[in-house]
Amino acid sequence: MAEGGVIVRLTVLGCWSPYPAPGGACSGYLLQDGGAYIMLDAGNGSFSRLLQFVHHCDLRAAIITHLHPDHYADLYVLRRATVAALKRGMRHRRVVLFLPSEPAQVFKELAAFSDAFEVVPVDSLPEEVVPPGVRVHVASVGAVRLFFLPACHSLPAYSVGVEGSGYLVYSGDTAPTEELAALASEAGIFLCEATGLDGDEDFVQGRHMTARQAGALARRAEVRELIITHFFPEYDLAALKAQAEAGYRGRVELAVEGDTYFLY
Ligand SMILES: [Zn+2]
Ligand SMILES: [Zn+2]
């Protein structure tokens, strides 16, 4: 999608929801663009895992797709680490924090952490229509452009496009939508939630996707690579993978904590 020589790398920090598997973490990913790092969701346990890859002082921004604890709970520890680093002169700028401004009560609590975060409500960002005709909120972190697409979830949520020399689309938590398929149509890697098995269709309706629905959406979007994530710890991952592959009619990767992908 974009020109410009920026290396963009994705590392899986946590892939579980709504609670982690033993030794695991909830939703969290680390994006690298050249020397800058961006945390994409910050679920329980993801900050500890992030420290295995980078120093937290190198974190320039954090993106929270929505205000469910399995996607933001580690902001509390990121705040503590950032405040300490600022005080000790180990970093000079706060972490830019993109997040939805609803539910208001949670947003208010997080927005008050102005000692660590430069808070940017996603819904206040300028809107733009990006190819192939999708209306999104846009922002930039260094050379990386971010696209925020309203998702279909139980509270205000966003899917995120990350554009450098590669183009990643992350579903966040959402039911399948045509807008997401359109946004993902430009993606090298599509990181998509796969919360349910086939029998869960009624349960997830309007909020999440089954693995098969994630596969079908990725197929409609003709993404080059599909990685599924957001796993319920009690489920058989092989069954999720098989059902996603049936929907995608191709090979699907399971997100694995600690794995890194080069984006394209
Ligand atoms: Zn979730
Ligand atoms: Zn959620």
CATH architecture: 4-Layer Sandwich
Give me the Rg, rounded.
17 Å
**CATH level 1 name:** Alpha Beta
Which molecules are bound besides the chains? zinc ion
Weakly predicted, low-confidence segments: 1-5
> End-to-end distance, in Å?
9 Å
- Write the element-wise H/E pattern from the N-terminal end onward: EEEHEHHEHEEEEEEHEHHEHEE
What value does the average pLDDT take?
95
Largest sheet: 8 strands, mixed
> Judging from the principal axes of the Cα atoms, what is the shape?
globular
How many domains make up the 3D coordinates?
1
Number of helical segments?
8
Number of strands: 15
> Which fold name is given in CATH as the topology?
Metallo-beta-lactamase, Chain A
Please give a handful of descriptors for the protein shown.
264 residues; alpha/beta; Metallo-beta-lactamase, Chain A; 8-stranded mixed β-sheet; 7-stranded mixed β-sheet; 8 helices; disordered N terminus; binds zinc ion
Mind sketching the topology for me?
Elements: E1 8-14, E2 28-33, E3 36-42, H1 46-50, E4 59-63, H2 69-72, H3 75-87, E5 95-99, H4 104-111, E6 117-121, E7 127-130, E8 134-141, E9 144-150, E10 158-163, E11 167-170, H5 178-184, E12 189-193, H6 201-204, H7 211-221, E13 225-229, H8 237-248, E14 253-254, E15 260-262
Parallel strand pairs: 3-4, 4-5, 5-6, 11-12, 12-13, 13-14
Antiparallel strand pairs: 1-2, 1-15, 2-3, 7-8, 8-9, 9-10, 10-11
Report on this model:
- The protein has 264 residues and is an alpha/beta fold.
- The protein has a single domain (7-253), classed as Ribonuclease Z/Hydroxyacylglutathione hydrolase-like (Metallo-beta-lactamase, Chain A, 4-Layer Sandwich).
- The protein is 24% helix and 30% strand.
- It has 8 helices and 15 strands.
- The strands form 2 sheets. It has an 8-stranded mixed β-sheet with strand order 7-8-9-10-11-12-13-14. A 7-stranded mixed β-sheet has the order 6-5-4-3-2-1-15.
- β8 and β9 (144-150) form a beta hairpin.
- α5 (178-184) crosses α7.
- It is globular and about 55 Å long.
- The chain starts with 7 loop residues before the first strand and ends with a strand.
- Residues 1-5 have low confidence and may be disordered.
- One zinc ion binds next to loops.
